[in-house]
Design a protein that fits this description.
The complex is a heterodimer.
Chain A lengths: L9 E7 L6 E8 L3 H12 L7 E6 L11 H5 L23
Antiparallel strand pairs in A: 1-2, 1-3
Chain B lengths: L1 H23 L8 H29 L5 H6 L10 H4 L5 H22 L5 H29 L3 H14 L11 H8 L6 H18 L23 H14 L6
Helix pairs in contact in B: 1-2, 1-8, 2-6, 5-6, 5-7, 5-9, 6-7
The chains are: A alpha+beta, B mainly alpha.
């Protein structure tokens, strides 16, 4: 599909639902350039008040880890409970940790 | 006065209803999924604005006619939209050129209407300005893409403009209804709206490397209910369910 030069490239869309929150990946769409990708994202992903800001990035610019690396990447964290901050006694009165 | 206000409100509504119908004909046929959705959004925006205007027109008229009565139970001669709105979709460049010519008029009209002495029209206009801003942005961008795109897209966009230009004069026509509304401060100064329209058209077409067609013969009659041959087909499709099953609910 993507080899057809008449096809518009694919873009990944990130929507920020409220100011101050992070932009979340919500899907992808086709567009000829960034400007059109933002406008298409507005029409496809924010028509029910989902957004206050839009990021777009060409899908080809996203580099992903490989599934076959998953074991060596992620499994070693399984037995490292000490990496969680759960061994501290919380001082009384500390609300925001 | 109230009759002129009824007529004036109805014109605003009819333009939007008929353009909405034309745009919604693209639903499921858009050149690409994203555009299909964008165009349907645009059509629904127009319909939403038209509904507010029809409801208000019905109140002004005082004969208990609802928005549906005004949209579905009037005859062709009673519709007062300009002929630009009923022109067939043609190719995508033609559809976008038609919307561009309208959006460039609709935005400054709505901006000016927010200062109308009629509080209800001012409120409806206030609500429309934001989406009208977006519509103009999107249709302008398409004009630039087509005009400054490939040889073929340029040619099609220019052909669309050349074909539609004759329908732009009607947008700014003066008549007794408009005169009365302008005098009352309800309708804005249309010379200023036309100047804004003209400036937008010049700027966008320049960037699109498209030629602004010369003003020649201008179509007329829409505001008096005299329409092009397309109008009857539009109404037949739009109204036949309501007329076949009067008062149906689901």
């Amino acid at each position: 599909m993507s080899e057809n030069p008449n096809n518009w490239p694919l873009w990944e869309i990130f929507i920020q639902s409220k100011r101050g929150l992070d932009h979340k990946h919500c899907g992808s769409l086709h567009a000829a350039d960034a400007e059109m990708a933002i406008e298409n994202a507005r029409d496809v992903y924010t028509r029910r008040q989902e957004g206050s800001s839009i990021w777009v990035v060409k899908s080809e610019h996203i580099h992903a880890s490989r599934p076959e690396d998953a074991e060596s990447f992620f499994d070693p964290a399984d037995d490292k409970v000490y990496r969680h901050p759960t061994f501290y006694t919380m001082p009384e009165g500390a609300k925001y940790i | 006065m109230s009759n002129a206000l009824f007529q004036y409100t109805l014109r605003l509504a009819d333009d939007l209803l008929i353009l909405n119908h034309r745009l919604s004909e693209w639903c499921g046929h858009g050149p690409i999924l994203e555009e299909d959705i964008a165009l349907t959004n645009r059509a629904l925006d127009h319909l939403g604005e038209a509904r507010n205007l029809f409801t208000y027109a019905g109140q002004v008229e005082g004969k208990n006619r609802s928005e549906d009565d005004l949209a579905y139970l009037r005859m062709e001669r009673q519709f007062t939209n300009v002929k630009l709105m009923e022109q067939p979709n043609g190719d995508y460049a033609h559809t976008m050129a038609r919307s561009f010519l309208f959006d460039a008029y609709h935005l400054p009209l709505m901006q000016a209407l927010t200062k109308s002495t009629d509080a209800q029209l001012a409120a409806i206009a206030g609500k429309s300005v934001k989406e009208a801003t977006y519509h103009l942005r999107a249709s302008s961008e398409w004009m630039i893409r087509f005009g400054d795109g490939t040889e073929k897209s340029h040619q099609r966009a220019q052909a669309a403009l050349d074909n539609l230009w004759t329908f732009t004069g009607e947008l700014f026509e003066n008549d007794p209804v408009l005169e009365e509304m302008t005098k009352a401060g309800i309708a804005p100064d249309m010379a200023a709206v036309k100047a804004a329209w003209s400036k937008t058209v010049d700027e966008v077409l320049a960037e699109a490397t498209l030629k602004r067609p010369a003003d020649g013969f201008m179509a007329t009659g829409g505001r008096k209910g005299l329409h092009s041959e397309h109008m009857g087909f539009i109404l037949a499709e739009m109204q036949h369910v309501t007329r076949a099953y009067p008062g149906a609910e689901w």
